[in-house]
Amino acid sequence: MSTSRRKFINLLLGGGLLGWLGSIFYPVFSYLKPPPVPEANVNSVKAGPVADFPKNSGKIIKFGRKPVILIKMDTGELRAFSATCTHLDCIVQYRDDSKQIWCACHNGIYDLRGRNVSGPPPRPLDEFAVNIVNDEIIVSKMKEIG
Amino acid sequence: MFKKTNEKIYHWMDERFNLTPLIEYMQHKQVPVHKHSVWYYMGGVALFLFIVQVCSGILLLLYYQPGVDSSYESVRFIMTKVNFGWLVRSVHSWSANLMVFFVFVHMFSTFFTRAFQKPRELTWVTGFILLALAMGFGFSGYLLPWDELAFFATKVGTDIAGAVPFIGEAIKIVLRGGEDVTGATLSRFYAIHVAMIPALFTVILSLHLLFVQRQGMHEPDYYKNLKPEQKKTIPFFPNFVLRDVLLWLIVLNVLLFLAVYFPWELGPKADPFASAPEGIRPEWYFMFMFQSLKLLPAHVWFMEGEVAGILLFSVAGLAWMLTPFWSIKFDKSARFNPMLFIGIAVIAFIIFMTILGYLM
Amino acid sequence: MKNIFLRIVVSGLFLLFIKPDFILGDVETLMKTDNCISCHIEEEELPEDFNKHDIHMQKDLSCSGCHGGNPASDDMDEAMSIEAGFVGVPSKKEIPEFCGKCHSDIGFMRSYQPRIPTDQTDQYYKSLHGLRLKKGDTKVADCSSCHTAHSIMPASDPRSSVYALNVPETCNACHGDEEYMQEYEIPTDQFTKFAKSVHGVALLKEQDTGAPACNDCHGNHGAMPPGISSISHVCGSCHVNNMQYFSDSRMGAAFKKEKLHGCEECHGNHEVQKTSDEMIGVDDKAVCSNCHEPDDKGAEVATEIHKQLTTLATTYEKALAQQKEVEHKGMDDLDIEFLLQEAKQSLTQARTLVHTFDSVKVTVKVKEGLGKADLAIKEAQAQIEDYYFRRRGFGAATFIITLLIVALFFKIREIDQRNLNKEDRR
C-alpha cells in the first residue's frame, strides 16, 4: 500500500477522532455548566438588595412556576405572599394608596397578612418567608408546621 | 519528536510495571475467524453499553435529587433546563435497554456455540450473575424518575417478590423500606442503583473479563477439528480490538439516533393515592416472567399459582446458571441435539410470552 | 402548650360524641341547682327541642333567664308565680319583644359580648316578616322560627340552624312548603333553584362558607326581597368591579330609567349560573337578544364583544395546547406558563369589562391578552423548533461518527493487509 494512502487514512482517523471527541465533550461540558436556575425545586429566590426596594411598594417575583408578591410596608417590614388570587387565579398587586393587596380582575382585596377581606376571594393568600442575608432579600417557602 | 516522547513515556512505565510481556501477550493472542465470529462481538457491545451507562449515570447524578418532592422535579429539570440534559437522560434509558438486550444475545450465542463447556464454566456463571445484576439495574432505575408508570410498576414488581414463600414478605418489606412503595423505597432503590449494584457489577465484570482474557476465545467444535494451517485467525490486538471499536461506534450512533428521535418520555408525577393507570407493565425484559405469572391458574397442585410460578422461575434460573454442570453431551452420530432443543424452547417461550404480554 | 390545647379539644369532642343527647351530662348538677329543670325532667315536660348546648344554657341563663320565675324554690306554685317574675310561654306576637327585652339592651348584652348588635328586634319589625306579624299574620317567621326556641346557638356554630351551611334549609322549611306558602302567592322553588346555582353548589356541595346563603343577599333580621334599585348593590357587595362597570355604563343608566332589575335581568336570581362567553351576542343562548333586535346598535356591540372574547379565548386555548405539547416533548415551558397566566388574566378582565357594554374597552383588554397569548405561542413554537433542531445536531454527530467509522474501516483493512503480507513473507 502506498505511503501517501496510509498517511491519508491516518489523517482521516486522527481528524475523525478529534471531531468525535469534540462531539462527545461539547455536550458533556455544556451539561456540566449549571443552568441559570441551578436547582429543580425552587425553595428560595433572591429578590434583589433591600436598599433598592422602596417602602410602601410591592413587586411580583417569579418563584419557580408561581408568581409571588413581595411587599415592603411603611414600617420597612417585608412580607411575601403567593400572588395568585384565590378566586380565579389572576395575579394580585399592591395598592400603595389603600395599603392592601388587590386583585384587579374582580376587585378582590387582601390585607397585609394575606387574608381575604373583601370581594370574591374565598381563601387567604399563602404566605412566604422573607429573610435578609447580606442586605439581599431572600424569599423562601414557609416551613411546614407539624 | 512526538514519537520520541511517546517512547520515553512507554519506557518509563515499562521499567516500573514491566508492560512488554502484557503487550506481547495481547499481540500473540489470536482470535479465530469463522462463520460464527460475529458472536464474539456481542459481549464487547454489552461492555461498551455498560461504559456508556456508567458515564451517563454519573452525569445524571450531578443533578438528580432522590426524594418524593424532588425526584420527578429534578428529572424534569434535567430534561428541560440542563444543557443536553434531555440527551443524557435519553441515552441513559436507551443504553440500559440495549445493554440488557445485548447481554441476552451474548448469553444465547454462548449457549448455542456451547462456549460454556469446560474450561469456561465460571465465565458462564459470572455472566449469568451479570445478567441478573443488569436486570436489577433496570428494575431499580425504573423507579427513580418517580413518575406514574414507574411507581405502579415498582408496586407490582415488589408485590411479586412478596409472594415468594416464607421469605417473600420480608424481602418485600426490605425492598420497599416499609409496607408500601413510598419515599423510603425511592431512597433504597437509589442506593441499590447507584452504589450496591455498581460495586457488585464491577467486581463480577472484572472476573468475567479476566477469565476471557486468560482463556482466550472459545473455538466452536468444527473449527477446533481443522488442521492448524486451515485455522484462520487475527491478532486480538490491534485487529480484533479495532473491529470492536468500529462496532461500538456504530452502536453509539444507533444509540444517539434512538435517543434523539425517540426521546424517553417522562409521564405524570406519581401519585400514591391515585388509582393505577391502565397499561401498567414492567420493562420488556421482565415481561415474559410477568406474563407467565399472570397466566398461571389460581392454584397449581397445592400451591398458589403465583407462588408456583415464582418457584418454577427460580428453579429454572438456577438450572440455567448451572448449565455447564449438567449440559448433555452431544453425540455427533445422533441427529437430535438436546441442548439446541432446550435453547430454542427457552427463546421461543420468552418471545411468545413477551409478545403475548404486549398484546394483552 | 400545644398539647394541653389539643387535649382540651379532643376531650371536648369526646364528650360531644359519647353524650350526644342533651342534658344527661349535667343532669345531676342542674337538678341540684335549678328546680325548673329537675322538676320538668321528672314530669317529662321539658320542651321538645331542649338542648343543653343552647347558648343561653351555656351562659348559665337557664329556663328562668327567659321565662322568669324562681328556680331556687322547690314549690311549684311559688316558683312559677307572677311575683317571681314568671312569664310562661310567650305568644307568637310577643316573641320579638320577649327576646328583645335582653337582646335590644346593649347595657345588658355588653356583659356577654361587647360588640354584639342589639338592633335585631328593630330590624325585624321593618322586615316583611315583622310587618306582617304586626298586622296579625301569625304564619310569618318570628325569632324562634329561624333560631329555634331552645336550641339556640351562635351563627358561627356548625350545629346552629343559622350557620351559613344550614341557612338555606332553615329558610326552606317554610318557603319551600307549597301548601304553607299558598296564600302569599310567591314561588316555593327558591331552594331547588339556589341549590343548582353557582352559589348553591359552592355552599351546599363544596361546603364553602364563603359562598352566599339566602341571608347574604336578602338580609337576615330585616329580610326583604331586594328592591329594584338595590339589586346591583346586593350583587356588587361581592362582585365589586362588575357593579362599578355596570352602574357607570349607559346600560346602567338605561336600566334605571326603565326600572329594570339590574344584574338579575341577565343572570337570573336564585338560579344564577357560571357565566360563559355565549351569554353575550345575538345567538340563541345570548341574553342580549332578550331585549335587542338582531339589527340594532346594541346587537352590533354585543356581536363585537362576543367576537373579541371568543378570539382571545380560542387563542388562549391554542396557546395552552402548544404549552402542553412543549411540556410533552420535555422542553422548557416555564416562561410560556407565565405568559399564559397573564393572557388568562386579561381574558378574565375582558370578561368583567363586558359590564361596561363598551366594545372599545373590551377590545383594548383583549388586544393586551392576545399579545401575551401570541407571545406564548411564539415561545412555544421556538421551543418546538428547538426540539427538532436537536435532530440536526444529531446529523452533525452522525457525520463525524461516520467519518471516524470509515477511517477506522480503512485502517483495519490496512492492518489486515500488513498481517497478510507478513504471513506471506513467512
Keywords:
heterotrimer; B: 360 residues; mainly alpha; Cytochrome Bc1 Complex, Chain C; two-stranded antiparallel ribbon; 15 helices; 4 strands; C: 426 residues; 61% helix; 0% strand; oxidoreductase activity (chain B); electron transport (chain B); iron (chain B); respiratory chain (chain B); Cytochrome_b_N_euk/bac (chain B)
Question: How would you summarize the topology of this molecule?
Answer:
The complex is a heterotrimer of chains A (146), B (360) and C (426).
Chain A: H1 3-32, E1 44-49, E2 57-63, E3 66-72, E4 78-82, E5 93-95, E6 100-103, E7 108-110, E8 116-118, E9 127-133, E10 136-141
Antiparallel strand pairs in A: 1-10, 2-3, 3-4, 4-9, 5-6, 6-7, 7-8, 9-10
Chain B: H1 2-17, H2 20-28, E1 30-32, H3 40-61, H4 71-80, H5 85-112, H6 121-143, H7 148-162, H8 168-176, H9 183-215, H10 221-224, E2 233-235, H11 236-261, H12 284-295, E3 299-300, E4 303-304, H13 305-321, H14 323-326, H15 338-359
Antiparallel strand pairs in B: 1-2, 3-4
Helix pairs in contact in B: 3-5, 3-11, 4-5, 5-6, 5-11, 6-7, 6-9, 7-8, 12-13, 12-15
Chain C: H1 2-18, H2 27-33, H3 35-42, H4 55-58, H5 63-67, H6 76-79, H7 95-103, H8 106-109, H9 120-126, H10 128-134, H11 143-147, H12 167-175, H13 178-181, H14 190-196, H15 198-205, H16 214-218, H17 231-236, H18 240-248, H19 250-258, H20 263-267, H21 297-328, H22 334-353, H23 359-425
Helix pairs in contact in C: 2-3, 7-9, 9-10, 14-15, 21-22, 21-23, 22-23
